[in-house]
Structure formats: C-alpha cells, structure tokens
C-alpha cells in the first residue's frame, strides 16, 4: 500500500496526487496537519531517510522558529521531536510504500520509483 503524506494546499503535494491518480496508482493520502503523525511513522521514515532530508530548512515553519530551537535540532531524535511538534516543518510530500520512503516530487523521480 502506498501512503502519500503531506498537506492538501501544498503545490508539490497537489502535483504528486495528480501524478499518482493519472498513473492509476492506488494510494492513501494522509493529511498530517489534520490527521497528525505518530512517532512510529516518523521513526519508520528515519529508517530510510536522513533527518536532514526530512526537515525542510527552506520553509516558512523552520524560518519562523526561534534560533535556539533550530540550534537544538542536531540528530534524528531532536528532529523527530520537532516534526511531531511542527508537522509543517517536514519536507513534502513523503511517499511511503512497503519497501521504502521518498521525499519531494518530480515526474522523473516518480517514474523511477514506479518503474514507468
């Protein structure tokens, strides 16, 4: 089963959802602002992706954090705590299937993932 994590008003998430639908890929969309995230979900992502990839340091949520909060994010555990507290800091979308996880979206990236 494929799960696409993100927020519905994010342009990149919208593009990924349209791409998956157009390619007739069955997936579940998980709005992590409304449905939340668990530490187990983030831990599963961290088995496949580094926390540096998951934390979007270019986004407005990260930029709005106090400098001392940013400085405290130094490893996977502190990044996971930040992502649970501020899900909007996660780079979107996160695509998870049975084997692995991927972050972001591009046509080329998804074609490679789905071997199209």
Write a compact overview of the structure shown.
This protein has helices at 11-22, 39-46, 51-54, 60-63, 67-71, 76-85, 107-113; strands at 2-6, 27-31, 94-96, 101-103. It has 116 residues and is of the alpha+beta class.
Describe the structure using short key phrases.
7 helices, four-stranded mixed beta sheet, 4 strands, 116 residues, 43% helix
Structure description:
It is a single chain. By secondary structure, the chain is α+β, with helices and mostly antiparallel strands. The protein has helices spanning 11-22, 39-46, 51-54, 60-63, 67-71, 76-85, 107-113, and strands spanning 2-6, 27-31, 94-96, 101-103. The protein has 7 helices and 4 strands; from the N terminus they run βαβαααααββα. It has a 4-stranded mixed β-sheet, covered by helices on one side. The mean pLDDT is 96. Helix content is 43%, strand content 14%. The longest helix is centred in the first third of the chain and has 12 residues, at 11-22. α2 crosses α6.
Separation, N- and C-terminal Cα atoms: 18 Å
Helix count, DSSP H or I runs of 4 or more residues: 7
Count of distinct strands: 4
Mean pLDDT: 96
Q: What's the Cα radius of gyration?
A: 14 Å
Main beta sheet strand tally, sense and closure: 4 strands, mixed
Structural class: alpha+beta
Strand arrangement, largest sheet?
2-1-3-4
Low-confidence stretches: none
- H and E string: EHEHHHHHEEH
Estimated share of beta-strand residues = 5-15%
Overall geometry comes to globular
Q: Which percent bin holds the helix content?
A: 40-55%
